[in-house]
Amino acid sequence: MKILGIDFGDSRTGFAISDKLGFGASTLENFKSHSIIKVSDYAAELAEKLGAEKIVLGFPKNMNGTIGERGERTKRLKSELEKRTDVPIILWDERLTTVSAHNLMNVTNVRGKKRKESVDSISAAFILQSYLDSIK
Questions:
Q1: CATH value of 3-134 in 3.40.50.1360, 3.40.50.300, 3.30.930.10, 3.30.420.140
Q2: Residue burial 104-136, b: 16+ Cβ < 10 Å; e: rest
Q3: Neighbour order of strands in the sheet with 3-8
Q4: Angle of helix 36-50 relative to helix 69-84, nearest 10 degrees?
Q5: Structural domain boundaries of the chain?
Q6: H, E, C per residue of 36-83
Q7: pTM
Q8: Which candidate, 69, 65, 56, places its Cα nearest to that of 124?
């Protein structure tokens, strides 16, 4: 079963996809837009194109577990996505995934423009892999 992972950001949204067996997540691409409508349209089209049977949407919570402004925007994205696809959408705690993505890029010496362009899809892969690991 292919699963689409999404890291919804303020200006860019990162995407990742699982392998058919659901063992590993791979980065896909980024989509540059801050519009919930445009991101939901793009995500629904991508899920259909890739044959995703589930979507895991990173859900940003504050470190104390409360839901802030970014979490509320993510819930609105989920609602818009549900209007565009019948694929089940799972909100998944994404705390520290961006930190993990930056740490990985430090270790692999990714710098400059490439770093900025990669962080969101890498974060999406971390979100998706965390979900995949939890269901094993």
A1: 3.30.420.140
A2: bbeeeebeeeebeebbbbbbbbbbbbbbbeeee
A3: 25-32, 12-18, 3-8, 54-59, 89-93
A4: 50
A5: 3-134
A6: HHHHHHHHHHHHHHHCCCEEEEEECCCCCCCCCHHHHHHHHHHHHHHH
A7: 0.86
A8: 56
d(CA 28, CA 70): 23
Token couple for 91 = 């909100």
Q: How is residue 64 written in tokens?
A: 């104390």
CA–CA distance, 21 with 39 (Å, rounded to integer): 27
pLDDT digits (tens, 9 = 90+) for 35-82: 999 999 999 999 999 999 999 999 988 778 788 898 999 999 999 999
Could you tell me the two tokens for 4?
Answer: 């689409």
